[in-house]
């Protein structure tokens, strides 16, 4: 079984509340859930829609076709009618002009209840009855979902909607053994698990919910959260906190990340560990502020003036976001470098059921030296070492040792030094870290046939769509494989070289115009990419999109 429900309407109509309630009911009935969100950058009006897909099997992305459309505006029908599967239904208010749909007295019933805001809950009741999901599971979910003063009226609204509905399906409940989470929540949880103690940032869609989530749990977890005046201040303050010895983090979206670039170079020369993230959205400038794209890959890799070591990790799923964020803090501390997490609006916002996180897999490795471990009488903050990593002391805690740092080029002690010898030695020292960092780089995940004829290559949030496309394609013949990169700078090439030697065709899948992942492959390997499947309209790619493009490209092969 595999069903999809689309709920559409205007901002301010409570669409998100309807979706959150519906997906929680379905999740508590034991089904796997994937909720895709498409919303405009306005508080009221416009057209927003969300799709809930659920199944008793694993699902990794959203569907192009839906079984149910719940239209809260006339525009929803005109925009999405062509997505309806054969035999699907459209639910709308009786005041709508269309005659072929299920028209319910939603507004009238809500008005009779004395609360016009419960229109959506009446619709949820009708949908739950239609699907045959347990009434008790839904009612109990409502009791925990709404605030006390709103529980009774929403229970009554749900009951009314349920009673006017008819069963088409009779879905049997399964074991509810998963959590429902989005990428930004998972990223925030990963930071908390890693021991972050200071988070600062400036609100910018779609990065803001990371700060909001950490802020909600700040008191219980002993975290200082500060909403600052701009992104310039955000990274500089986070660097100050890290210099003082606490794990610190900040993040933004493309435009905000651009403002952090000077401070990113400061982290590079001062060798201060920091974790920051860029939740991508389509640019240039404000672009499509509530949409998704992967257009900042090259920008993030090359961000900062001058040359200094950094690491970039593209997050692939909510589960990946949790574990990779925690890992990023350890790597930043070990190598005393910035680690940039690359995500996007799609991954930030979609909800997905996954197995609960295993917190026993998270270790906190600080790599801060003890004052007694310093052999030199006068502390050398930037001591030349074989690895390029100098002993790190925390100022104020190191009572007998003076910790000097500087944004200018400096000698081992941290004093400004413009000599040729010092410049050459310090550049070599800093860049040595990349050699050791390369030994810790994780190869991309591989999915599919061991000897693929066709190899798909992607990074970050395209993971779910590519994985599902390969699984679908291999149902008829084991000819497809896929590599999806997480660690993307320094660029890992071993597994890419291995599978590309097996495949007849290499197809890159990414959400940008210039095929930036392909350009990395061109730069670091001799592999010839045969085709780039690109999407840059601000909407997330899914498995249907990929298979459709493959059909065009591989016209001599029946998929």
Report on the architecture of this protein.
By secondary structure, the chain is α/β, with parallel strands linked by helices. It folds into 4 domains: 2-164, Pyruvate-ferredoxin oxidoreductase, PFOR, domain III (Pyruvate-ferredoxin Oxidoreductase, domain 3, 3-Layer(aba) Sandwich), CATH 3.40.920.10; 181-361, 3-Layer(aba) Sandwich (Rossmann fold), CATH 3.40.50; 368-440, no CATH class; 445-553, Rossmann fold (3-Layer(aba) Sandwich). 37% of the residues lie in helices and 21% in strands. The protein has helices at residues 15-28, 74-80, 106-112, 119-131, 135-145, 148-164, 183-193, 208-216, 218-221, 231-243, 254-259, 261-270, 297-302, 318-335, 345-349, 420-438, 463-473, 494-500, 516-524, 543-553; strands at residues 2-11, 32-38, 45-55, 66-71, 84-93, 102-104, 179-182, 198-201, 224-227, 248-252, 274-280, 311-314, 338-344, 351-354, 445-448, 454-459, 480-485, 487-489, 505-510, 531-534. The strands form 3 sheets. Strands 6-5-4-1-3-2-14-7 form an 8-stranded mixed β-sheet, sandwiched between helices. Strands 9-8-10-11-13-12-18 form a 7-stranded mixed β-sheet, sandwiched between helices. Helix 1 (15-28) packs parallel to helix 4 (119-131), helix 1 (15-28) packs across helix 5 (135-145) and helix 5 (135-145) packs antiparallel against helix 6 (148-164). The longest helix has 19 residues, at 420-438. The radius of gyration is 26 Å and the shape is globular. It starts with a strand and ends in a 6-residue tail after the last helix. The mean pLDDT is 96.
């Amino acid at each position: 079984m595999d069903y999809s429900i689309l709920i559409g309407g205007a901002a301010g109509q409570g669409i998100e509340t309807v979706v959150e309630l519906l997906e929680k009911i379905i999740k508590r009935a034991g089904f796997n859930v994937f909720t895709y969100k498409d919303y405009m950058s306005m508080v009221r009006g416009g057209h927003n829609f969300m799709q809930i897909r659920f199944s008793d099997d694993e699902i990794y992305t959203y569907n192009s076709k839906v079984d149910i459309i719940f239209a809260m505006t006339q525009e929803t029908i005109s925009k999405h009618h062509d997505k309806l599967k054969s035999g699907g239904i459209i639910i709308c208010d009786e005041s709508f002009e269309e005659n072929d749909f299920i028209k319910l007295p939603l507004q009238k019933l809500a008005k009779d209840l004395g609360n016009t805001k419960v229109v959506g809950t009446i619709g949820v009741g009708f949908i739950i009855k239609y699907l045959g999901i347990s009434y008790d599971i839904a009612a109990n979910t409502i009791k925990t979902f709404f605030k006390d003063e709103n529980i009774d009226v929403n229970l009554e609204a749900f009951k009314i909607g349920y009673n006017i509905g008819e069963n088409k399906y009779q879905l049997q409940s399964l074991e509810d053994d998963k959590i429902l989470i989005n990428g930004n929540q998972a990223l925030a949880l990963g930071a908390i698990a890693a021991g972050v103690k200071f988070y600062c940032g400036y609100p910018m869609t779609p990065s803001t919910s990371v700060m909001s989530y950490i802020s909600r749990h700040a008191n219980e977890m002993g975290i200082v959260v500060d909403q600052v005046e701009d992104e310039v201040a955000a990274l500089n303050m986070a660097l100050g906190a890290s210099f003082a010895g606490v794990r610190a983090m900040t993040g933004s979206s493309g435009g905000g990340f651009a403002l952090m670039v000077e401070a990113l170079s400061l982290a590079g020369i001062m060798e201060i560990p920091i974790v920051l993230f860029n939740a991508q959205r389509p640019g240039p400038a404000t672009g499509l502020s509530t949409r998704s794209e992967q257009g900042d890959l090259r920008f993030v890799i090359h961000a900062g003036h001058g040359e200094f070591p950094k690491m970039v990790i593209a997050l692939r799923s909510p589960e990946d976001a949790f574990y990779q964020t925690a890992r990023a803090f350890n790597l930043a501390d070990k190598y005393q470098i910035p680690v940039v997490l690359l995500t996007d609006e799609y991954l930030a916002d979609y909800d997905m059921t996954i197995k609960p996180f295993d917190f026993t897999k998270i270790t906190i490795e600080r790599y801060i030296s003890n004052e007694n471990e310093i052999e030199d009488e006068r502390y050398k903050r930037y001591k030349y070492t074989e690895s390029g990593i100098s002993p790190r002391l925390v100022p104020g805690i190191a009572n007998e040792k003076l910790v000097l740092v500087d944004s200018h080029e400096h000698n081992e002690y941290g004093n400004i030094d413009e000599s040729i010898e010092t410049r050459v030695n310090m550049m070599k020292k800093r860049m040595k870290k990349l050699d050791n960092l390369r030994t810790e780089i994780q190869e991309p995940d591989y999915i599919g046939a061991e000897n693929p004829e066709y190899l798909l290559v992607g990074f970050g949030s395209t993971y779910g769509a590519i994985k599902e496309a390969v699984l679908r394609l291999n149902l008829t013949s084991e000819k497809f494989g896929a590599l999806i990169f997480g660690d993307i700078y320094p660029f890992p090439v071993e597994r890419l070289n291995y599978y590309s030697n097996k495949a007849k065709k290499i197809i890159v899948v990414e959400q940008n115009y210039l095929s930036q992942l392909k350009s990395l492959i061109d730069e670091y390997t001799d592999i010839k990419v045969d085709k780039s499947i690109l999407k840059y309209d601000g909407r997330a790619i899914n498995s249907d999109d990929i298979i459709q493009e493959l059909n065009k490209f591989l016209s001599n092969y029946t998929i």
